[in-house]
Amino acid sequence: MTTTSDSHQPSPTGEPPADDLHLGSFTTDAPWSMATRSPSWARVVDVLRTEQVRQLPWLTTPPRLPPIGRALTVIAIVGRAVGLWYLLERRRENSRARLSRRLRLAAERLGPTYIKLAQIISAGEGVFPTELVEECKKCRDQVPAVPFEEVEEAIERELGASIPDVFGHLDRSALAAASIAQVHAAELVTGERVVVKVQRPGIDVLVRKDLRVLSWLAPFLVGRIPVAALANPPALVELFAETIVEELDFRLEAANMLDVADVFVKLDQRGFVVPRPHPDHVTRRVLVMERLDGFKFNDVSGMLDAGVDTHAVVKTGMIGFLEGAFLHGVFHGDLHGGNLFIRPDGRTALMDFGITGRLTEEERMAFLRMMTSAMTNDVRGQIAAFRDLGALPGDTDIDAIVTDLRLDGPPLDPTSLSPEELVSELQRVIKALLGYGARLPKPLMLYIKNLIFIDGAIATLAPELDMFATVTDVATHFATTHGQTIAAQLGMKQQEIELDLDGVKAGFGVDPATTDRLSYADLRRRRALIQKRLSGRSVE
After folding, report:
1. Who is most buried in 54, 80, 149, 386, counting CB within 10 A?
2. Which residue segment(s) compose the domain that 311 sits in?
3. Is 11 part of any domain?
4. pLDDT tens across 357-402, in order?
5. Contact 351, 333 (CB under 8 A)
6. If we measure between CA atoms, which residue out of 332, 336, 324 comes closest to residue 460?
């Protein structure tokens, strides 16, 4: 994947390059120009974001009475899952895994809101029990498509025009159907190839009703079922509400597309392609966008046959994600294999911007300190950055937490511990973090979620990638490209931001003196060994 600008390259069709590449990392052969056609829907975006923030307290404050019908349904399904576990499986081997499976199946029965909630939990490795995280990763987001007649009706109602007036063709079969919306391939009457994203009828009302039920139910679940380590149920509902409400207005998603595309241009990061939203055909429930093609993320053989450098895809993906978060405070917040594909030229096409990370300036600076502290092996700096992100209370005693978590001593190699020692150590760390009031704020959750995806991307595209060399390459890129800017923003000297590779090695749990290389495959084998030693053991 190349990271050089293509703003002066001719389009594949031989036409002059698009005139809007200074506005975003788009394709060179534009179906329409974002420079000459100002989006009609963009004028209301700031008002919509303000209204969204205003709604959140009402949605997450426990009501005196929830929506009764939906509450009874939720209580019946979740109660049956927990009750059967309690009666039949509580004292059996792998008790927590059995409970996690029952809760995942209950989420799937309850529908879109709870499927999304399970997906939030699936990103919480280290925050929720491993058994629950692994089970929630199985939660199916692909659901039966809405009948085409309802799709047509929704499109015509939202766009205020008949299908033939807007589209020369609209596929009856959905390209994909997920919990919030489904997408159809189409062609405009003017000939442009597009994708039409249509919100499921009534989903906005159902999600808000479910949030009210969850807000009412969450306080009763505190301490009652063993599913949360660092996130208590009320805090999880708040985090979930912040995330899912953002997905219910496609005008916000279209604005997110333009903002992320703009960040890539400012970074001169052309290794990504963002589809152009249509300047006119975007409403609350319908989003028409440019259609892009490429290889599915798991089609490694297809990429290799086309000459795509999969190692470069991974490295550019890591750099682009980190740059957006640390330098501009805007990044795609929901990376997964279904939301991107690789184009034949090696560039990554990003899709589905319903969840986008947006950091305040204070949060962005905390992320920047978190990165530089990790590079320089400054443990106290990392803890302070987590505090400033809201993962720890503002009055947290940094020195005390470093001492309590034994972060000032030599790192432990988890593969060298016996199962009993490993469980004991995890219990000690979790208990200490709970005592300090640790939680998972939205920006950090999205960041971790994306890191988990990148971890999986390495497994798929570059399993033999040398982790130490990759970390060094990424750190070198930041130092040479952004070092002066980062140092100035943090009030440091540029030479103070120097990678401590021994500290990085220690972070992976290996001996810096004896380990020169660690491939991702080696790392996975270490993880498998750790998981095996934890298997069947309870970590409260």
Report:
1. 386
2. 293-540
3. no
4. 999 999 999 999 998 998 888 999 999 999 998 889 999 999 999 9
5. no
6. 336
As beta bridge partners, residue 358 has 330
**Domains of the chain: total:** 2
What letter would DSSP give residue 325?
Answer: I
Rounded Cα distance between 430 and 123, Å, is 17
Shared-domain flag, residues 378 and 466: yes
pLDDT of residue 348: 95
pLDDT score, position 438 = 82
DSSP character for 41?
Answer: G
Half-sphere exposure in the Cβ direction for 117 (13 Å, CA):
24
Q: What is the mean pLDDT of the chain?
A: 86
Distances (CA, A) of 61 to 121, 217, 305, 522: 21, 11, 54, 46
Element (H, E) at 367: helix 361-376
> For residue 419, what pLDDT is reported?
66
Amino acid at 385: A
393-438 residue pLDDT tens: 999 999 999 988 888 777 667 767 676 776 677 667 767 777 888 8
Residue at 401 is within a domain: yes
Residue 426 lies in a domain: yes
Residue 161 included in any domain: no
Residue 297 has φ and ψ, to the nearest 5°, of: -60, -30
Tell me: do 362 and 213 sit in the same domain: no
Instruction: Please report which confidence band the pLDDT of residue 127 belongs to, taking 50, 70 and 90 as the band edges.
Output: low
The radius of gyration computed from the CA coordinates of the chain, to the nearest angstrom, equals 24
Do 241 and 348 lie in a common domain? no
Residue 199 pLDDT greater than 60, yes or no: yes
Six token digits for residue 325: 């978060």
